[in-house]
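Collaborator request, handled under Task 6.
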Amino acid sequence: MKTSNTLYALAALGYVSATPLGKRQDFSTVNYPAGTGANLHEYPPGTGENLHEYPPGTGENLPFYPGTSTPNPVLIFTSTYHILATPDQVVNGTTNPVFTGGLPGAQATYDFGINVDFDLICYNITLLGFRGEYQSMARTATHVHEGARGRNGPPRLVFPNPVGDGNVRFSVGCMQGPFTTGILANGVDTGTGFRVSQIQANPSGFFADLHSSLAVPGAVRGQFPG
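Structure tokens returned to the collaborator:
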């Protein structure tokens, strides 16, 4: 996956890291050496630069180049999801789950963009009011689980834990299958064989959560919108 595509995908999820205007180089006053033509108001006749469109057969007027299905496939999410994760949605147990109350005062937002053709998921996670240490048997404490509202289920995706100073922490990036979680069920990783198309096919059957040493069953949890 190309880095530029990843950055565009993250921008589509609302993550933009802009360089302050004062630190950008101003190219509007650059004068190129005489004879290069860079300072001309238009290019010399015959170069094709003054044409309103390129000559037929060059392919420059096509919406995208031949052999590609879209101009930039990674930029197009086949589905997007915004999730508000709160402590009151956390449950513990599998047979008869009970609401635990999570980590009072904590809250997280998860913005996901999915491309099922590339088995790709991009994420923009903001965590507020977290306390304690990250704690989970999985590789990280930040997950997407398969499970209906009010029920538990195995983790299918794990994400880097949010980082930051003070009360606000962030985790932003993209990842592509095959996926693993570090949790084994009957000797098989719970991410094995999972594809993000399964979320798109049944979003309400999945939830995002995050675990703390002060609330091991879950600090916050939020269901994917159906």
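The cover message to the collaborator said: "DSSP finds two helices and twelve strands in the chain. The first strand starts at residue 79 and ends at 85. Please let us know whether this matches your experimental observations."
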